[in-house]
């Protein structure tokens, strides 16, 4: 049966990939696609800016484990997607982005709304395509999904000229993907597993470092089993938050620039790091030359290029986290590590996460603690980027994978709210909150219209300190308090802004109103809601290891 | 240290841009580059000369493998190979210098491929050192123009050790 490429792609996505929703914004080059969509049952969420579509697809993917799909038109539509694609790329999130392109005969002529989308997105996608032959469309779309969701996951972009969308083709999907140069390795090498087990046996101060890879490979249960068997403390990276319940007795928080002091002390004093699905980013390690100086490293990662990129492992294991952990659990001998635990408990008592409570001003950390209590630790927590992100990470203890959603690698302000929209669409029955700052929330505030029209009860809690807090903090600490362009003295009235979009809004100025307003917001189920909480401007995120510094440079408070 | 890498890639549009982009954004310098088809129609070979220590080379190799269209990466460092470059050199030449230049051409087994009253075009193939040496010998006569290909290599069939 002949159908247009647009129709075939929609049919393929629904029937073969089980895609239930896509996020997008129409435009000239994708009218053909939207025309086909008009007659289909595929749900489309109309965002108000293409960047929102990419982040929403990303938030949907992070919160559900499925592939997120977004679509935008050529030129500015595609360039608006790029921040979202780069965000997904840095955190290895599987999304497929479809972009329209000018018609085949107009390519390369600086036509209206033409941009070299494939060229622009080459360094921020796992792979990308420009379809010039309609008969290759289904093979390419199949490959795109396959590449996005296998191996080290990531975004794949497919650029489709407007005339290709409308070309008639036979609906025939190749039975399998055949890519000569792409064969991800999932199974760990038995010899390396044996060597790892030996190191674990010999270690006196072992620690497990779990990253986003544990979540991507759905290896949380295996991680916990493994940790329990060798009774090792588990720290995570920011991306690994949720790989083990943070209330679990083996959990020791997250490491890095703003990680708990005890987490950083523990990893730096360890003699063996079992690193799973991490890439030893600069924000996690600080000065890499002095990071965990006495530790041997077992590095498990699906991406061979991560092995030896930032640190030199003693035992490299290129494998899927889940399979590697399954093998490891079988071969390791149980351990106690009594002396080691004594030391860790001492750090935990001596250096807990803490802040100075106040009775007359609202402390942002206190807000997160209250949200944590009032949501019983069950909410899906999405964050913007900056201080709000770090406080959310520090004070909201998550219980399960895919519960904490944050832009770790790219650090994209404006990510949180559209990502929360995606998360809410993928999790209708759960409470989804966006922890925001007054800076970040204004970067994609237009998505209030999206959330309002979809009747999504996303809860935005703005920790409003009237400044770009994280940069202000750096200026205070490292630039002699020269607050260049970081004080946002003129801000919108967020309460009224929410109402203008048909959402709910409230402002909290007194600490006594806080609980009641959080409860009010949590009970709203038919519309987005903004709670604008006035917190103190001078509050800083501690602990802090200054960029590129060693642990001995840590500022505790 | 210099390394010669050979990448077998799928012959698809944009593949060279992917490789070039990867090298530039990761800060690897390409010293020499040659791209052409192979005996297999849908595969191309990209021969690259890059500088870097073992660690850099390992990363380059792994990052190159991450590109979906890269099928195979070979490092020819320390492997017995036949390596060739080709150069066309336009050198000043008149009746007084022509004989001396022809002597050089014979010594280096190069070829004169074009003659005018003011200059000669000489074609030479060989490894980089040979071409460098030939060029140096010609310099006193005045090199007006030189075009040089990237290096190509092929592993020797006979393993001596």
Automatic annotation (TrEMBL), chain B:
<comment type="function">
    <text>Catalyzes the conversion of 2 pyruvate molecules into acetolactate in the first common step of the biosynthetic pathway of the branched-amino acids such as leucine, isoleucine, and valine.</text>
</comment>
<dbReference type="GO" id="GO:0009097">
    <property type="term" value="P:isoleucine biosynthetic process"/>
</dbReference>
<keyword id="KW-0028">Amino-acid biosynthesis</keyword>
<dbReference type="InterPro" id="IPR027271">
    <property type="entry name" value="Acetolactate_synth/TF_NikR_C"/>
</dbReference>
<dbReference type="GO" id="GO:0005829">
    <property type="term" value="C:cytosol"/>
</dbReference>
<dbReference type="Pfam" id="PF10369">
    <property type="entry name" value="ALS_ss_C"/>
</dbReference>
<dbReference type="InterPro" id="IPR045865">
    <property type="entry name" value="ACT-like_dom_sf"/>
</dbReference>
<keyword id="KW-0100">Branched-chain amino acid biosynthesis</keyword>
<dbReference type="InterPro" id="IPR019455">
    <property type="entry name" value="Acetolactate_synth_ssu_C"/>
</dbReference>
<comment type="pathway">
    <text>Amino-acid biosynthesis; L-isoleucine biosynthesis; L-isoleucine from 2-oxobutanoate: step 1/4.</text>
</comment>
<dbReference type="GO" id="GO:1990610">
    <property type="term" value="F:acetolactate synthase regulator activity"/>
</dbReference>
<comment type="pathway">
    <text>Amino-acid biosynthesis; L-valine biosynthesis; L-valine from pyruvate: step 1/4.</text>
</comment>
<dbReference type="Pfam" id="PF22629">
    <property type="entry name" value="ACT_AHAS_ss"/>
</dbReference>
<dbReference type="InterPro" id="IPR039557">
    <property type="entry name" value="AHAS_ACT"/>
</dbReference>
<feature type="domain" description="ACT">
    <location>
        <begin position="4"/>
        <end position="78"/>
    </location>
</feature>
<dbReference type="InterPro" id="IPR054480">
    <property type="entry name" value="AHAS_small-like_ACT"/>
</dbReference>
<dbReference type="GO" id="GO:0009099">
    <property type="term" value="P:L-valine biosynthetic process"/>
</dbReference>
<keyword id="KW-0808">Transferase</keyword>
<comment type="similarity">
    <text>Belongs to the acetolactate synthase small subunit family.</text>
</comment>
<dbReference type="GO" id="GO:0003984">
    <property type="term" value="F:acetolactate synthase activity"/>
</dbReference>
<comment type="subunit">
    <text>Dimer of large and small chains.</text>
</comment>
<dbReference type="InterPro" id="IPR004789">
    <property type="entry name" value="Acetalactate_synth_ssu"/>
</dbReference>
<dbReference type="InterPro" id="IPR002912">
    <property type="entry name" value="ACT_dom"/>
</dbReference>
<protein>
    <recommendedName>
        <fullName>Acetolactate synthase small subunit</fullName>
        <ecNumber>2.2.1.6</ecNumber>
    </recommendedName>
</protein>
């Amino acid at each position: 049966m002949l159908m247009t490429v647009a129709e075939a792609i929609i049919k393929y996505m629904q029937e073969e990939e089980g895609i239930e929703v896509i996020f997008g914004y129409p435009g000239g080059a994708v009218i053909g696609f939207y025309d086909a969509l008009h007659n289909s049952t595929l749900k489309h969420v109309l965002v108000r800016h293409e960047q929102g579509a990419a982040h929403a697809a990303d938030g949907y993917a992070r919160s559900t484990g499925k592939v997120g799909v977004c679509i935008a038109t050529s030129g500015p539509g595609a360039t608006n997607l790029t921040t979202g694609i780069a965000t997904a790329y840095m955190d290895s999130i599987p999304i497929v982005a479809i972009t329209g392109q000018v018609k085949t005969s107009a390519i390369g002529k600086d036509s209206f709304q033409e941009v070299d989308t494939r060229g622009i997105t080459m360094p921020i996608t796992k792979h990308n395509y420009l379809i010039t032959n309609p008969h290759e469309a289904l093979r390419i779309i199949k490959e795109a999904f396959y590449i996005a969701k296998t191996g080290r996951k990531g975004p794949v972009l497919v650029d489709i000229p407007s005339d290709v969308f409308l070309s008639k083709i036979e609906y025939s999907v190749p039975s399998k993907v055949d890519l000569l140069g792409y064969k991800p390795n999932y199974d760990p090498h038995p010899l390396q597993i044996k060597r790892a087990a030996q190191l674990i046996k010999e270690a006196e101060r072992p620690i497990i470092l779990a990253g986003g890879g544990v979540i991507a490979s759905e290896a949380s249960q295996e991680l916990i089993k493994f940790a329990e068997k060798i009774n090792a403390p588990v720290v995570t990276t920011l991306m690994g938050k949720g790989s083990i319940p943070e209330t679990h007795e083996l959990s020791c928080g997250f490491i890095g620039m703003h990680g708990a002091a005890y987490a950083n002390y523990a990893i730096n004093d360890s003699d063996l790091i079992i690193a799973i699905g991490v890439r030893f980013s600069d924000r996690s390690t600080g000065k890499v030359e002095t990071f965990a100086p006495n530790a041997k490293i077992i590095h498990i990662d699906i991406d061979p290029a991560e092995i030896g990129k930032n640190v030199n492992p003693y035992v490299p294991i290129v494998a899927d986290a889940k399979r590697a952990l399954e093998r490891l659990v079988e071969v390791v001998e149980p351990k106690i590590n009594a002396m080691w635990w004594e030391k860790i408990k001492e750090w935990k008592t001596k250096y807990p996460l803490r802040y100075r409570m106040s009775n007359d001003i609202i402390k942002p950390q206190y807000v997160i603690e209250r949200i944590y209590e009032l949501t019983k630790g069950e909410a899906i927590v999405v964050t913007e980027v900056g201080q709000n992100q770090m406080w959310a990470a520090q004070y909201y203890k998550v219980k399960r994978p895919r519960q904490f959603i944050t832009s770790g690698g790219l650090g994209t302000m404006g990510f949180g709210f559209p990502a929360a929209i995606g998360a809410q669409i993928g999790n209708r029955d759960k409470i989804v909150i966006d922890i925001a700052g007054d800076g970040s929330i204004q970067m994609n505030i237009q998505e209030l219209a999206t959330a309002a029209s979809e009747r999504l009860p996303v809860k935005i809690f703005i920790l409003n300190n009237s400044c770009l807090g994280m940069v202000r903090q750096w200026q205070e600490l490292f630039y002699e308090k020269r607050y260049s362009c970081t004080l946002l003295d003129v801000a919108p009235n967020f309460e009224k802004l929410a109402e203008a979009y048909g959402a709910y809004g409230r402002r909290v100025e007194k600490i006594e109103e806080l609980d009641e307003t959080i409860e009010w917001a949590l009970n709203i189920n038919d519309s987005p809601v903004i709670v604008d909480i006035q917190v103190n401007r001078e509050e800083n995120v501690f602990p802090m290891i200054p960029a590129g510094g060693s642990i001995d440079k840590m500022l505790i408070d | 240290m210099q390394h010669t890498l050979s990448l077998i890639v799928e012959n698809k549009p944009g593949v060279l841009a992917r490789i070039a982009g990867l090298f530039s954004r990761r800060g690897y310098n390409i010293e020499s580059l040659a791209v052409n088809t192979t005996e297999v129609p849908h595969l191309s070979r990209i021969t690259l000369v890059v500088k870097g220590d073992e660690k850099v080379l390992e990363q380059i190799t792994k990052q190159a493998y991450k590109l979906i269209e890269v099928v195979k990466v070979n490092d020819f460092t320390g492997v017995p190979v036949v390596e060739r470059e080709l150069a066309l050199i336009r050198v000043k030449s008149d009746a007084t210098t022509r004989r001396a230049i022809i002597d050089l051409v014979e010594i280096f087994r190069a070829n004169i491929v074009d003659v005018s009253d003011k200059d000669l075009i000489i074609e030479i193939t060989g490894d980089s050192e040979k071409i460098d040496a030939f060029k140096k010998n010609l310099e006193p006569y005045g090199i007006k123009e030189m075009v040089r290909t990237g290096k190509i290599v092929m592993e020797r069939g006979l393993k001596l050790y």
